[in-house]
What does this fold into?
Amino acid sequence: MKFSEFPYERPDYEAVKAQMEAMLDQLAAAKEPQTFLEVFGRINELRNHCNTMATLCSIRHSINTKDEFYDAETNYWDEYSPLYQNLESKLFKLVLHCPFADELKSVIPETYFKEAEYSEKSFREEIIPDLQEENRLSTEYEKLIAGAEIEFEGKTYNLPQLKALTQNPDRALRQRAYDARMSFFVENEEKIDGIYDKMVHLRDSIAKKLGFRNFVELGYIRMGRYDYDENDVAAYRQEVLEHIVPVASRLYKEQQQRLGLDRLRYFDESVEFLSGNPTPKGTPEELVAAAQKMYHEMSPETGEFIDVMVEGQLLDLVSKPGKAGGGYCTSIPDYKVPFIFANFNGTSGDADVLTHEAGHAFQVYQSRNIPVPECLWPTMESCEIFSMSMEFFAWPWSKGFFKEDTDKYHFLHLGAAVKFVPYGVLVDHFQHEVYAHPDMSPAERKATWRRLEKMYLPHKDYEGCDILERGGWWYQQGHIFGSPFYYIDYTLAQICALQFWKRSQVDHDPQAWPDYLAMCQCGGTLPFRKLLKVGHLREPFQKGILGEVMNSVSAYLDGVDANKL
It folds into this structure.
């Protein structure tokens, strides 16, 4: 059955509620664990079906945000998903406070009980209208970004398409393209500020209704940070400033010299080589064929996985008008399959999608038979280990995507991993500041971004672009709007992925892939720190580990004459 054939039908909430409440009563009346688990399983089947419908709607709406049917269905889910969440919170409470909860823990993964505990702290019926409004605001931002139609030199572009032009070797062209892209944000500055201001105050209000000091505390609960806290993240930020920012700054300086520029301007950063960045060689169909070949050669498990994805048409990859921005992977529970969404634009990111998002998809495919919905995926920092590590496990097959640009791609890819970490930490630090001071004005928020930007990305040169100089870069980062505090996760995962890079590509450790596969099969049954032990990885919070990782990366990059690539 192909994705297009998956039927969608809006659930009847009242009917679902009646079914769910009847089964919740049976749970409450259960006298022994076996009966409880049998009813628990039936409840999860019902929940998986509702989640399948919500996911199908979300995917099809993101593929075409102008589709009137799925636009209306998205409005339904924005309104009703908190009501479904309310039913799930009742389930959490029954499991958490079950008289034989200790016996259930031998069957139900420990992370489910942490999720139940966090649900109790982060959800009450009285905040349902607030959650509905939060969903509505997130959809408003997404549709604004997806609907961008920018006239540039005789053609109309959306944001992903125009971004590709900012990597053009012609410096004058990429400046014009970059400025045209930013003109969209200038024109919509007041609207974006308004959406985010409402979001911040709304989230702050929700947190205080639930008894938290501010949304920072609630944000950590929502993200399922079971075994680390704000103090761990603050210490990690300091390690990044000490060990990674200097390496990244050096890479930017070398990039400027390689390009023969007196200054590396904001519109230059996307170009690494005078001869142009590495680009994938082939049509989208040819890139998918190269990915199929790679995954068949990588392992039996990845070969089976990629065939399911291609034969089921579970990838939507090409950018087009009305399509939501960005890329993601999700899963469709009733069919036990993942789905990959992307916006190919002719850059190296197209190949990255077929490794990064496929890393997510491979993990969830490996854990597809875990029966508890909350334990199918790990928490986000763990999820990103699978995506970022898969990018590096794919290195031996890069030639299938990049041909003569393979060495150039490897240099860019590894350097970009280093450069990304300070940016990712900046996004996180900014959100800590915003939610610790929710009454900041829009101008003060932008000034805060710019102040922090100078700490983590001191090379930035925005002369000539007023909105960036005032601190408006973050308008482009959708996570800040729709998934607050989801970003430090990428950087923590990057440190773990770089360990897999060293083990697989430098040390040729035969245990690297089996360790990765074992982690995939755990799904979301373990919290972050315990999952790292399965993969024999060291914690990013561990003092000194960032310095060790950077030594290995720097040694590799220093061994490459980038001027000859």
Notes: Residues 33-63 form the longest helix (31 residues). The mean pLDDT is 95. The longest strand covers residues 337-344. The two ends are 45 Å apart (CA to CA).
